[in-house]
Amino acid sequence: MDTAAPEAPLAAAHATAGVEADAGKPPLLKVQDLRVRYAVKGGLMQRTVGHFDAVAGVSFELLAGQTLALVGESGSGKTTTGKAIAQLLRRQAEVTGQALLNGQDLCTLQGAALLQARREVQLVFQDPFASLNPRMRVSELLQEGLQALCPELPPEQREARIHTLCEQVGLRRDALQRYPHEFSGGQRQRIAIARALAVQPRLLICDEPTSALDVSVQAQILNLLRELQQGLGVAYLFITHNLAVVECLADTVVVIQRGRIVEQGLVRDVTERPEHPYTRQLMAAVPRVKPGIA
Ligand SMILES: Nc1ncnc2c1ncn2[C@@H]1O[C@H](COP(=O)(O)OP(=O)(O)O)[C@@H](O)[C@H]1O
Ligand SMILES: [Mg+2]
């Protein structure tokens, strides 16, 4: 398991052994032959003139409490895959295939069951400015999801949970009364993480959450995500184009190109012995991060 000092920034991938030990367990998330087709609009009337298959038959499994990195160059279908799993594309695209969370297909859920699933699967995006309403104080931002998805929680428990979260993500208590623009990019991402974790999801889909941050701040956020995972047991579907980040955080990796998987496996195997030329190309495109060095 993780032998790295907790303060070591960007320490090497931790629990690949855990993947092997847990190999017989049913997965938390099982994605089967996921396909997403966008309509292509054209002409003055913006009629549908064709289709574009952004995700063309993707299958993978993620165990509870672990991290699966979904990597690929820009436009390869990573965000589309994440949004399709989180059921955010129902009105925008034709989605087929299955996304089973604990055996229940998210793609077919409706009504109360869908609401419950929304609680289990949360997202953190690259740009917290876009995902955090600038007119809301941090306390309101954290309350919002809780009120919508956990209405049964009494107000005092809501308050208590928010204070605990603030501590867990490293925000000072006075942060609660402030607005998103008053924070740095890294702090804003901490707010977005706290907001996503408030409803105690089992799966957090992180879509390039550190790509817009300075390298040193990236390391802090990655370390925070790892600590939170160890404490809370939440699983991450971690979307990135950066294989160095994969080595730091993930147990398994899925490499996607033009909506199709070209390679997948344990991080150690894929990064040490990439089989597909596209994976090698992605590896060559990033400076490698040595264990323990930011
Ligand atoms: N709403 C949309 N309508 C049509 N095409 C889209 C839409 N969203 C994304 N695409 C296209 O789907 C492909 C995959 O996009 P995306 O999932 O955002 O890739 P990535 O996250 O890997 O950069 C891209 O070619 C993109 O232009
Ligand atoms: Mg994307």
Question: Which key terms come to mind for this protein?
Answer:
binds adenosine-5'-diphosphate; Rossmann fold; six-stranded mixed beta sheet; disordered N terminus; binds magnesium ion; 294 residues; 11 helices; four-stranded antiparallel beta sheet; globular; alpha/beta
Plain-language structure description:
This protein is of the alpha/beta class. The chain has a domain at 16-131 and 202-284: Rossmann fold. It has helices at residues 16-21, 78-85, 111-120, 128-131, 138-149, 155-168, 185-197, 215-232, 243-249, 267-272, 277-284, and strands at 29-42, 47-62, 67-71, 94-101, 104-105, 121-124, 203-207, 235-240, 252-257, 260-266. The strands form two sheets. The protein has a six-stranded mixed sheet, with helices on both faces. It has a four-stranded antiparallel sheet with strand order 2-1-4-5. Helix 8 (215-232) links the parallel strand 7 and strand 8. Helix 5 (138-149) packs parallel to helix 7 and helix 7 packs parallel to helix 8 (215-232). The radius of gyration is 19 Å and the shape is globular. The protein binds adenosine-5'-diphosphate and magnesium ion (MG).
